[in-house]
């Protein structure tokens, strides 16, 4: 009898999960304790389509991640490394590039952001949905700016406004390009949606932490006096409210509700400067460099130099392959010669044994005749 598949425990993979861009966020070499925490924080930004528990080893090379990226469906690589002067971040696309190299000029960890907040947030289910992406001041016609905006957009799944639900908008990532300095500021926020047509005392009662009602004789006193809230807590501004159409029982439309949208920063913060763009995966032609500018003649000379190096490398590989084939042929010939000698020795041994048997037989016949 054929085995039946368990339907209840088989987790179905949605089309969005199958086509969404996935990423590796890794560290390369020794980068320091604080930068290691930054790697973990960036993984939270990229959640849920990232390897959140990835552990790198000192012996890991780039080709190791390239080899496993294909079977796992990983499309992007974010690698942090440190030199003597800078903390660097490389953003690359599997499997053939391009690669963008940034200097991390400044950064703040999630714990640094929460330590200065009056009421820090502790998100949980917010990381189950990908964040929204906002790009500001990326409308330049320069090629490296267009490439940067394209790479940042494709780091996260695209949004279908027609089918997207408000409950899926839990986080937002903001990339702001400073037109004067060329720096890119990254911010990470959590989105909060609250009902606006409810008074502040009712909101206080609906919170997880129940307020202290010991000084009131009746709960109506608490509601009529405006609730136990601070005077500094402001009402929701009209420009922060949105109308959400609701559906009643049986699909009947109800009156739309007004809800306030607020954001709370989660962190981390990064200030990045684009330094170099390469056409390949951490290799290849330098398409853009912020510090080194070359003339057309220098570019042609460099291209010719690369062609000569490539031809020399190809010739060296051809000669090496020929030498390998010669060695393999010589080894195969030696094996054949050894087997042939073994067969000849076996044949000679059999003939010698047969001759000894014949000699012993003749000797036994002579002895019998002499006895007779």
TrEMBL record:
Stretches the record annotates as Disordered: 230-256, 307-372
Family annotation (InterPro entries): Brix, PPAN-like
Start and end residues of each Brix domain: 21-283
UniProt GO cellular component terms: preribosome, large subunit precursor
Biased composition (Basic and acidic residues): 308-328
GO molecular function: rRNA binding
Bias kind Acidic residues: ranges: 353-372
GO biological process, one term: rRNA processing
Pfam families, A to Z: Brix
Source species, domain of life: Eukaryota
Protein's UniProt name: Brix domain-containing protein
Phylogenetic lineage: Eukaryota, Fungi, Fungi incertae sedis, Chytridiomycota, Chytridiomycota incertae sedis
């Amino acid at each position: 009898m054929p085995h039946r598949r368990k339907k209840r425990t088989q987790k179905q993979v949605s089309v969005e999960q199958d086509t969404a861009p996935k990423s590796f966020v890794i560290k390369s070499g020794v980068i320091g304790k604080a930068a290691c925490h930054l790697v973990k924080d960036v993984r939270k930004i990229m959640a849920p389509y990232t390897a959140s528990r990835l552990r790198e080893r000192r012996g890991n090379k780039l080709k190791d991640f390239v080899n496993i990226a294909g079977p796992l469906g990983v499309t992007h690589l974010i690698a942090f490394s440190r030199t003597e002067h800078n903390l660097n971040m490389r953003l690359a696309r599997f499997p053939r590039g391009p690669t963008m190299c940034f200097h991390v000029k400044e950064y703040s960890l999630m714990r640094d952001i929460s330590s200065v907040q009056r009421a820090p947030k502790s998100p949980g289910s917010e990381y189950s949905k990908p964040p929204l992406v906002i790009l500001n001041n990326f409308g330049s016609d320069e090629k490296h700016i267009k490439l940067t905006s394209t790479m940042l957009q494709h780091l996260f799944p695209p949004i279908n406004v027609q089918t997207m639900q408000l409950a899926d908008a839990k986080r937002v990532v903001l990339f702001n390009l400073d037109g004067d300095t060329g720096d890119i500021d990254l911010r990470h926020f959590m989105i909060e949606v609250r009902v606006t047509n409810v008074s502040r005392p009712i909101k206080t009662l609906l919170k997880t932490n129940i307020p202290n009602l010991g000084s009131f004789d009746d709960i109506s006193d608490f509601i009529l006096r405006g609730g136990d809230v601070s005077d500094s807590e402001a009402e929701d501004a009209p420009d922060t409210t949105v109308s959400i159409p609701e559906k009643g029982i049986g699909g009947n439309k109800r009156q739309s509700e007004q809800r306030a949208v607020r954001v709370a920063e989660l962190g981390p913060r990064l200030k990045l400067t684009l330094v170099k763009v390469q056409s390949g995966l951490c290799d290849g032609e330098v398409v853009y460099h912020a510090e080194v500018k070359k003339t057309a003649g220098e570019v042609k000379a460099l291209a010719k130099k690369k062609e000569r190096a490539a031809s020399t490398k190809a010739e060296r590989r051809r000669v090496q392959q020929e030498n390998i084939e010669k060695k393999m042929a010589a080894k195969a010939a030696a094996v054949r010669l050894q087997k042939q000698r073994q067969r000849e020795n076996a044949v000679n041994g059999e003939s010698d044994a047969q001759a000894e048997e014949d000699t012993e037989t003749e000797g036994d016949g002579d002895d019998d005749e002499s006895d007779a």
